[in-house]
Amino acid sequence: MLLLSLVNPEVSYQLMKTLNFDFIVVGSGLAGLLAAYHAADYGTVALISKSELDISNSYHAQGGIAAAIGADDHPSEHFNDTLVAGRNLCDQDAVHLLVHEGLERVKEFIAEGMNFDKDQNDHLILGLEGGHSKRRILHAGGDATGKMMTSFMLQKVLNKAQITTFEYCAALKIIVEDNICKGIQSLQYTNGENIVFLGKATILATGGLSRLYSRSTNPYTATGDGIALAWQAGARLADMEFIQFHPTALSIPGEDAYLISEAVRGEGAHLLDINGVRFMTDIHPLAELAPRDIVASSIFRKMQETGANVFLSLKHLNNSSLAQRFNSIFAHLKPYGINLLEDLIPIAPAAHYMVGGIRTDIWGQTNIESLFACGEVAATGVMGANRLASNSLLECLVYGKRAVEKARHFSVHKPLKEPLTLISLNPQTDQLYLEIKNELANIMSDKVGIVRDQAGLEFALTRINAIAEQFNVPSTDYNHHKINNLTDICRIITVSAIERKESRGGHERIDYPIEIEQQLHHIIQEKGKEIQYEAVRTS
After folding, report:
1. 170 has which bridge partners?
2. Which residue, 288, 319, 351, sits at the end of a domain?
3. Which of 118, 307, 355, 494 has the fewest CB atoms within 10 Å, counting from its CB?
4. Element (H, E) at 298
5. Higher pLDDT residue, 344 or 62?
């Protein structure tokens, strides 16, 4: 009965409105804000967000932004740390651009008025995080770097007359004809109106997909819509098996996961098991500051072994100044009766970051003409198999601008040839959507999570396909559309995880427990085509 209501929703359609801009930017995280800001120098910009402009993964980033800005540091060292964390799956040309141009972008940010935290002598305070060989993490507002940086950029964007913002406006379809992206079809939540945005170039900055999992640090909007729409439009996707689980998210029954920044471990916090034993020293030379994939899987295994949470402890540091350094975390823990400085903090890993994404070149260009991607949604090649901590905001700065530098050369509007189908809101199917979403989240967490094996992955794929088949009928209902997106993304991740028969970075298989040299390649998926392999660029 519910399925029938998906096919024929009893709601009235509204006419489709068409708006023309030079640039269409989808997503209002740091990458989207940067892209919109720079694009405004070359024409009119539509900045589209499916929620408020300040809800994004960027906004919630606590740790900071990495840049080799210290006197004892150099981009070459940042480069090497990125390759090591990425398990040699990083494209070296992309990483070279990240660390060198990133340093310049950070300096520009500071010159434009962004205030990163400084000491009493007006020197930048540089933090240390897992996988970094030097203190190179700039932070702002203690542990509110993402909030401070996105707020700073959002104000600059709102001051640009060339930029028009559209909140509560969900992308429905990337309009592609003759392998040329002509724009975006969207749905306005507030009135159910379909809006078609046509432009010379479209830049996707839609963020990640970690809300596909039942336990995640991401805001509720991070459900991977951009990935699904790009896949459906014919864009190539890369490395989708690599999902980064943040090692230390607050674990309290009945409560959402809350990120406990890696910077806390950078200041010396220990990880303890239920017996109060520090265990990371026996696993990796960097102990708690090992790369995230190692710390997350080590915590996962310890929890399986003991049947209990792992705990984060700062008690041994006896450093009261950390309450100010991590003021947001301190305040969040207080209502639970947990003192950051004195108590054991129960933590467990949570889905945090999509390492793969829409495959682009070093300018953010996809395989579809006039379609670009930047930020977490993109696979530029900088992250490899495991993102180095605090490289994500840096990638936004570098590739948000680079995408515009190429996109601005597209100068002709392409008229549409084919009509579009109106999509409607239907509250009657909201509950069905939530039920399907929760079932998929449980499947992904149980079978396509931190540790995987062939049997679990095949079980997941069979169930995902079965759900997808139920909704393999035409529909004009937005909830039906969202379910199709979810099943597409879950299938893509699972297929890639089955294909990679080794353990590397954020992909760990107990039936293939080591890295295999013959598997050192990007796994590429494109709709309607067989899986392809792409060599890692080493120069």
Report:
1. 187
2. 351
3. 307
4. helix 292-306
5. 344
Cβ-based neighbours of 166, under 8 Å, separated by 6 or more: 46, 47, 48, 49, 186, 188, 195
Residue 5 banded pLDDT, cuts 50, 70, 90: very low
For 90-120, give the DSSP string. S-HHHHHHHHHHHHHHHHHHHHTT----B-T
Q: Is 249 in the same domain as 346? A: yes
Six-digit token string for 384: 């490899």
Which residues contact residue 379 at a Cβ distance below 8 angstroms, ignoring those fewer than 6 apart? 237, 238, 239, 356, 357, 358, 359, 360, 522
Examine the pLDDT at 142 and tell me if it is beyond 50: yes
Pick from 351, 371, 399: which residue ends a domain?
351
Structural contact between residues 213 and 449, judged by C-beta atoms closer than 8 angstroms: yes
Q: State the average pLDDT for the chain.
A: 93
The residues, any chain, with a CB within 8 Å of residue 345's CB and separated by 6 or more, are 250, 260, 311, 312, 313, 333, 338
Tally of domains within the chain: 2
- As given in the structure block, the two tokens for residue 14 are 């509204």
Task: Using CB atoms within 10 Å of the CB of residue 305, give its burial: 0 to 12 exposed, 13 to 18 middle, 19+ buried.
Answer: exposed
Asked if residue 209 has pLDDT above 70, the reply is yes
Report the 10 Å Cβ neighbour count for 355. 28
d(CA 259, CA 505): 20
CA 33 from chain centre, in angstroms, equals: 15
Q: Can you say how many angstroms the Cα of residue 30 is from the centroid of all Cα atoms in its chain?
A: 11
| 135 within a domain of the structure (yes/no) | no
On whether the CB atoms of residues 24 and 202 are closer than 8 A, the answer is yes
Parent domain of 463 = 427-515
Q: Specify the pLDDT at position 58.
A: 65
- CB hemisphere CA count around 319 (13 angstroms): 13
Phi/psi of residue 269, nearest 5 degrees: -65, 150
Domain membership flag for residue 255: yes
3-state secondary structure of 85: helix
pLDDT at 515 over 70: yes
pLDDT band for position 415 (50/70/90)? confident
The residue type found at 485 is N
- Tracing tokens 């998210």 back to the chain, one arrives at 249
Same domain, 259 and 347: yes
DSSP states of 490-508 as a string? HHHHHHHHHH--S-BTTBE
- Residue 162 covered by a domain: no
Q: Which of 41-55, 397-411, 470-484 has the lowest mean pLDDT?
A: 41-55
Q: Please give the average per-residue pLDDT across 320-324, as a whole number.
A: 91
Q: What is the domain-level CATH number for residue 498?
A: 1.20.58.100
Does 115 fall in a domain? no
Least confident of 29-38, 92-101, 321-330: 321-330
Catalytic residue numbers read 292
CATH code, domain with 347: 3.90.700.10
